[in-house]
Amino acid sequence: MALSKYSYVRAFEQPDGLLPSTFLVIRIDGKGFHGFSKAHNFVKPNDNNALDLMNEAAKRTMQGRELNGECVMAFGESDEYSDAWWQTGRGAGVLSG
Q1: What would the DSSP string read from start to end of 14-44?
Q2: Phi/psi at 84 (nearest 5 deg)?
Q3: Are 58 and 76 in contact (CB under 8 A)?
Q4: The predicted structure's pLDDT at residue 88
Q5: What are residue 9's phi and psi, to 5 degrees?
Q6: Strand, coil or helix: what is 3?
Q7: What's the whole-number mean pLDDT along residues 41-67?
Q8: Per-residue pLDDT at 29
Q9: 37 vs 70: CA distance, rounded Å
Q10: Using an 8 Å Cβ cutoff, are 1 and 9 in contact?
Q11: Which H or E element spans position 94?
């Protein structure tokens, strides 16, 4: 965003609420996973295609070229995943997405 027409936004940011150089854990819950499972005919309790899909999503998050590879761990359980991120930048940038 530096040197762009949107750089004025930084003037409105609040002081960082995140500690610098710490891990940030993001939990992603599988909203509507029951319907997704039914639509794709997943076999209960552990469908191999579903597990492969979730593991591939975790791998891509870990590799994340667009995220500068800052995801250091991904953990999946049931219909949710948790990702641990190494956070060194501005908290406002991390929280705004």
Answers
A1: PPP-S-SSEEEEEEEE-TTHHHHHHHTTPPS
A2: -105, 125
A3: yes
A4: 65
A5: -60, -35
A6: coil
A7: 80
A8: 81
A9: 30
A10: yes
A11: helix 91-96
